[in-house]
Amino acid sequence: MPRYMMKKPWIIVLAVVLLAPYGFGAFPPFSVSTVLAQLGKPEGLYYKSWAIVIGIEHYVMAPPISGVIADAKKVADAFRQLGFDEVVELYDKGAGSRRLHQILNDVLPRKVGRMDRLVIFYAGHTGSIQDADGQDRGYLVPFDAPVNNATKSVTVEQLKEFTRRSASKHTLLILDAPIFGWEMTKPQELTLEGRLSPESETERRAVQVINAARQGEVSERPDNESRFVHTLLTGLSGAADLDKNGWLMVSELGRYLEQQVRAASSGKQIPTTLRIEGDGDGVLIEGRKLALTIGAEPRTPAERQQRAKAEYERAFALLQEGKAIEEAVELLDRAIEYDPTYGDAYVLKSYVRSEVFPDLDEALSAGLLAVKYAPENPDSFYMLGMVYEKRGQFSDAETALQQTLRVNDAYQDAYFALGELYADRLNEPQKSAEAFRRYVELGGTHDRARAAVNQADRTPKP
């Protein structure tokens, strides 16, 4: 994809943050009538929403992690703002081994009902051991446990056993750490096209996990603040609603965290999202329930622009992943139907029709509309130049690439493309060397450009 464009861009929460302003008394008294009441269907999506937030900063037998409790308290506040009924915070001493195991093995299985949602958040040290098959298995380190000994830890196997025993309809584990060893299943895809209310996903059971990093990576904490938590809070405020339909699904949150944290860390930290049980999708923010059918069309110009942007973002994500290319093309065409002035959609379509599914006539048509509706985007002119070159219109290609540099005079790829164009098509060796030189000055490393610059420097000037 064009270089410039690449720069753009559950429902039970288990939040583990370890310091206990609440004891077990924070959970309401258990009664048989509560369980029996959940034999029916709630008026909304859930009878009750639970968030368990665990944050451990000052360990007995492990180094401290500055800022963890502050992060965890922000997460707890975020779930309160989302309307969760029970938000239980466990910090430092409140997150000892005995207490964590009691909550997982006794308290939550008794109190959380089958029409509830549960989110567990954990921030603290983690470790790993090998099982009998030689596979690495991660574990959470309680307040009073050593990092390098799993005896008092909360292992992945114990977490999986807890989720199997929990009756909750939707369960989400958010772990500000690289925890691995889950039985992998395919990540939940976004499946909310054209819907204001994703009923089918919300009715099916799901146990989902969001890890802050992959195995071998670390959850970075610049200025004693978790980058993952910072992005999580932004996502929970509504930014992670990728299709802008008013519903924030767990799958959307996971995709948002992966995209944003990957970009902010320059690829050093990449969150992962797994569904380890069921085939549903949890809801974090419930959108409007209107009497509209699946596939209902937007009515106002603003709604059409919003739908166009959602279709474009989905197409862009599919192309980045290198899969479902035909679907991506359909989404782009749909985005343009909703908003015929959406310049960035024409840019991406020009790229697809030039490089992925070649059709140079369509690529040219899209490129011309891109420069018309997105003249401030240097990719508009860059892609048009690439299309002109493929069509053998070399003078037009030169003009388009020069216009790219008028919009952004630091666009490396445009200088490299001009260097090749002058050398291979227009027989202008001096201009080629000048373009390649500027490309190298901007940090370009292509061997051809470097060789051309070296050759020009060695050639005696007349």
Descriptive overview:
This protein has 462 residues and is of the alpha/beta class. It folds into two domains: 3-285, Rossmann fold; 301-458, Tetratricopeptide repeat domain (Serine Threonine Protein Phosphatase 5, Tetratricopeptide repeat). Helices cover 46% and strands 13% of the residues. The protein contains 17 helices and twelve strands. The strands form four sheets. Strands 1, 4, 8, 9 and 11 form a five-stranded mixed beta sheet that branches. A three-stranded antiparallel beta sheet has the order 5-6-7. Strand 2, helix 3 (68-81) and strand 3 form a beta-alpha-beta unit. It is elongated and about 85 Å long. It starts with a helix and ends with a helix. The relative contact order is 0.09.
